[in-house]
Amino acid sequence: MTESELIARYFARPVHERQGIGDDCALIDVGDRTLAITTDLLTENTHFFADVDPTSLGHKALAVNLSDLAAAGARPRCFLLSLSLPRADPDWLDAFSRGMFELAQRQGCELIGGDTTRAPDIDGRPGPVTICVAAIGEVDRASVRGRSGAAAGDDLWVSGQLGDAALAIAHHRGQVQLDEAAARACRQRMEWPQPRVALGLALRGLASAAIDISDGLLGDLGHVMERSNLGACVDVRLVPRSDAVRGVERDLQRRCVLAGGDDYELLFAASPARRDAIEAAGRECCIAVSRIGSMTAEPGLRLIGDERGFDATLRGFDHFADAAQA
Ligand code: ADP
Ligand code: MG
Fold it and tell me: pLDDT by residue for the chain (326 residues), tens digit each?
């Protein structure tokens, strides 16, 4: 059973809100406002290593949620924090909260509640740290956007560069030997993702659909294709990547940019008539935006500039399918 099958079978129910399960954010109408709500959970050994810098972990726990708000074009407003910790370590908590509040302040987003529990020991060893953040933002009702609004012929764009976080993991696992500067740069990108909130807001009324890339470009593009009922064509050569990624052999490079997780860049669709405005939005937000392909009426994914073609291993990370294969 895959993650999406699990959710579809046991949890997806019709809802009366503006938008329920299936997008980066749920949307609820409250008076004349629309709130975007999202939650993401980070668990030790799956999403981070036990020895990770707790400052970066505090940052990342909030950042991944703000990234979902960015996809929806929402302005962050507040968040909830739930923690399960094996012990109350003042140094760890000090660093964790510092990392989190630094980002929260920068984004004008306040912590309004949460829950805290102790993780019981497992076989005499401390249980895992689990962090769950739920974030709430506001969207303009006139420019609501999710994964489902793309049209055939729309351009496909991505922000920033892809693949660095996946390359950091490959380096950590000893699958590749990066030089020190490249390893540091990739690790920085993995531990300190920058949610593209300003770009998400600037794209209101320009992008027809958007998603944040958390599980790999092609997997997340698959969600846009499915929800928009369209196919897509991607020129692999146009997918933006750093010098560190460019420096590794072709197969790993391809895997990192197409299927690597944890990028937290935005993937979005927009009419070709919006090209100039999108370039201007990128400049205004000081973030590169690259056109990598288009949405097609013909179903399925077509990769160009790539001799290998699409295969199931590029579909992106799935917590359950991947565990079953391991
Ligand atoms: P993201 O990668 O943006 O966090 P996912 O693709 O993981 O989102 O999730 C797909 C959709 O399923 C989202 O709308 C999410 O809110 C929803 N979802 C995930 N887990 C559950 C759950 N246990 N119960 C209800 N909805 C869920
Ligand atoms: Mg998302």
Answer: 999 999 999 999 999 999 999 999 999 999 999 999 999 999 999 999 899 999 999 999 999 999 999 999 999 999 999 999 999 999 999 999 999 999 999 999 999 999 999 999 999 999 999 999 999 999 999 999 999 999 999 999 999 999 999 999 999 999 999 999 999 999 999 999 999 999 999 999 999 999 999 999 999 999 999 999 999 999 999 999 999 999 999 999 999 999 999 999 999 999 999 999 999 999 999 999 999 999 999 999 999 998 787 777 787 767 777 655 44
Sign of the CA dihedral running 250, 289, 188, 217: negative
Distance between Cα 38 and ligand 1 center (Å)? 9
Distances (CA, A) of 248 to 37, 123, 164, 173, 298: 38, 41, 11, 15, 34
Residues having CB within 6 Å of any atom of ligand 1:
7, 11, 21-24, 40, 68, 214-215
Q: Which two tokens stand for residue 115?
A: 């829950």
Nearest CA residue ID for atom 9, ligand 1: 22
CA-proximal residue: ligand 1, atom 5 (nearest): 24
Q: Which stretch of DSSP H or E encloses residue 62?
A: helix 54-71
Q: How far apart are CA 204 and CA 209, in angstroms?
A: 10
Distance 89 CA to ligand 1 centre (A): 31
Query: Please, which residues have CB less than 5 A from ligand 2, an ion?
Result: 24, 68, 212
Distant-in-sequence contacts of 29-32, Cβ < 8 A, 24+ apart: 29/141, 32/141
End-to-end CA distance of the chain: 14
Mutate-to-test residue for ligand 1 from 7, 23, 267, highest number of ligand atoms within 8 A of CB: 7
Contact 139, 72 (CB under 8 A): yes
